[in-house]
């Protein structure tokens, strides 16, 4: 099965530059309430979509829809929330 086109957006220089801008804007600090971890190592940070983009290009590139999360918060709490809401938002494209 071919990958959806939006997966390739994560490989673009435009995404890498935007991701770094968000980290700088957020002072390399996890935005998750109760965390606030400051992480200078960007490989341990995730530029997270507040509202899942689900292939919507406008949401994908919207800086107001992006936040810095530490990898730990993203991979545990955020992913659990998204998995729990799968039934309400349909199938990923």
TrEMBL record:
Query: Which GO-annotated molecular functions does the record name?
Result: endonuclease activity
Key words of the record: Endonuclease, Hydrolase, Nuclease
Which parts of the chain are coiled coil?
none
Q: Where is the HNH nuclease domain?
A: 17-75
Leader sequence residues = none
Highest taxon above the source species: Bacteria
Q: Which InterPro entries match?
A: HNH, HNH_nuc
User: Does the keyword Hydrolase feature in the UniProt annotation?
Assistant: yes
User: What is the similarity comment for this entry?
Assistant: Belongs to the HNH nuclease family.
Please give the PANTHER family that the UniProt record associates with this protein. HNH NUCLEASE YAJD-RELATED
Name assigned to this protein: Putative HNH nuclease YajD
| Protein species of origin | Bradyrhizobium quebecense
The root-end lineage is: Bacteria, Pseudomonadati, Pseudomonadota, Alphaproteobacteria, Hyphomicrobiales
């Amino acid at each position: 099965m071919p990958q959806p086109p939006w997966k390739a957006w994560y490989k673009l220089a435009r995404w890498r530059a935007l991701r770094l801008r968000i980290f700088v804007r957020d002072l390399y600090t996890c935005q998750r309430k109760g965390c606030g971890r400051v992480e200078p190592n960007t490989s341990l940070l995730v530029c997270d979509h507040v509202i899942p983009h689900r292939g919507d290009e406008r949401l994908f590139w919207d800086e107001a829809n992006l936040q810095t999360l530490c990898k730990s918060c993203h991979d545990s709490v955020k992913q659990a929330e998204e998995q729990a809401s799968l039934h309400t938002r349909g199938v990923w494209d």
